Amino acid sequence: MTFGEEPVAKAQGAILAHSIRVKGGRIAKGQVLGAADIEALESAGVDTVTVAQLGPDDLDENAAAAELASGVPASAFDVSKAFTGRVNIMARNTGVLRVNAGVVTAFNGVDPMITLATLPDLRLVQAGDMVATVKIIAYGVPHRQVRAAKARLHGALGLAQVKMARASLVLTRTAGMKEALLQKGESAVRTRLARLGMALDGVEVVPHEASAIADALLRARGDLVLYLGGSATSDARDVGPAALRMAGGDVQRFGIPVDPGNLLFTGALDGRPVVGLPGCARSPALNGADWVLARLACGIGLDPRDFAAMGVGGLLKEIATRPQPRLSKPVPKAPRVAVLLLAAGASRRMQGRDKLLEDVNGIPMLRHAAQTALNSRADQVFVVVPPKQPARVAALEGLAVTQIEATDHAEGMGGSLRNGMARVMDDFDAVIIGLADMPDLQSAHYNALIDAFDPTRSREICRAVDANGTPGQPVLFGRRFFEGLSRLTGDKGARDLIRDMGEYVKRVPTAGLGASLDLDTPAEWQEWQDSAKLHR
């Protein structure tokens, strides 16, 4: 492959390296230049272009990525269609991902332009989760290099599927223990098992006494037996492990180097694994029990070396990006999308007026913005408002929106996003962040972002672009970025996140200039309102 500047007249059939604006639109980078493109470039006065030209033995980026991905075991993984040199690899079933680091390293050592990136080894994944991506960095690579890399791909990825169907749970009650704590423990365990495709078959609550626990363990009939004590296990001779021995079972391990989750024990009874869960298993947040349960359910043995190795990456408590059970579900074909409309700004440049109460087609700007979002295909609309602003609250009266009071609004957009995301994170696959002071936004802007959202093609941040190609608002973020949005500070909003995650950004063309028009001063509002009257 050659790369460099060429006269436009000689560039037909080459791959454009950088986007160029021409009359009536834009020729995107990566496009193979045809006769019409050459004519448009010449009409625009462009003399030379930077292009890539493939040689007779080269494969273009998509063909190379597709050929490499064909070497992935089809029984365990699905692959997406090649797009911009990328093929995403998804798990076909729930299970534990196996990654051979040595094989991946050898694959990535063939050619810097041929890459494979994966999730970590032993990560629990569900059907549809993306586990790896093949990316060709250049516009083309030699076919011989593709063949050499593909030959090294064998054994890089595997999927240990869940082998168990049912689990039994023994809970213990201590003096004065609230019923809600027992219910919380059962609910959290049921949720964890559901992620594995397993059912909770039999729950028994007994006093926190070794003999009572031993009898309950013997009555359990699940493929996996779980114990969650009303008091934490603090020693290998404590009540829970003692009860397992009393029932005729073996205690194999107490304590693991994963935090949270240290106070876990494992054993066996009548040929079935037994897990004494740590107290933190009552929370949905990731802990050491999740690692142990997933491996046992998939038939992956755990010996002392396996437990010892968990310490690398085992500090979970303070890792903001740690996955939680509710964040790892695959995105459905019809994803649930929320709109988070930010309406907590102070209108500082409006000389005492509130721009969100300015007249737009006979109603306040805020009401117009909310109605626009409600008329889109989004599933729910949240509006972030500041405290003690009755006029803004009144502007939303009667609309089917969920109002969220931004207690941190004085900090700026970061505070509003944090308050809003706390309500969005549990139930949606994507969120569209919109501003409430953009009068020319239409429902079509929101719908265009929803249509463009496609995690299988790495389109997980979709940003509206106006008719002039200027990026603006609103912006859609997939679930992958919810944790980051919920931790933003200051008044920059999500600009840094969009900049740093450019690989996942899809610019979505929209009609008109609504995506970039926001009005901050009385003069700007007057000019817009005068213009709007002329066009009615």
Structure characteristics:
single chain; about 525 residues; alpha/beta; Molybdopterin biosynthesis moea protein, domain 2; Aldehyde Oxidoreductase, domain 3; Molybdenum Cofactor Biosythetic Enzyme, Chain A; 4 domains; 7-stranded mixed sheet; 6-stranded mixed sheet; 16 helices
Characterization of this structure:
- With 536 residues, the chain is an alpha/beta fold.
- It has 16 helices and 29 strands.
- A 7-stranded mixed sheet has the order 25-24-21-26-28-27-29, sandwiched between helices. The protein has a 6-stranded mixed sheet with strand order 16-15-17-20-19-18, sandwiched between helices. It has a 4-stranded antiparallel sheet with strand order 7-8-12-10.
- Helix 2 (61-69) packs parallel to helix 4 and helix 6 packs across helix 7 (239-246).
- Mean pLDDT is 91; it is low at 318-329.
* Category from helices, strands and their pairing: alpha/beta
User: Taking Cα atoms only, what radius of gyration do you get, to the nearest Å?
Assistant: 28 Å
Helix content: 25-40%
Count of alpha/pi helices: 16
| CATH homolog superfamily of the largest domain | Spore Coat Polysaccharide Biosynthesis Protein SpsA, Chain A
Overall mean confidence score, pLDDT: 91
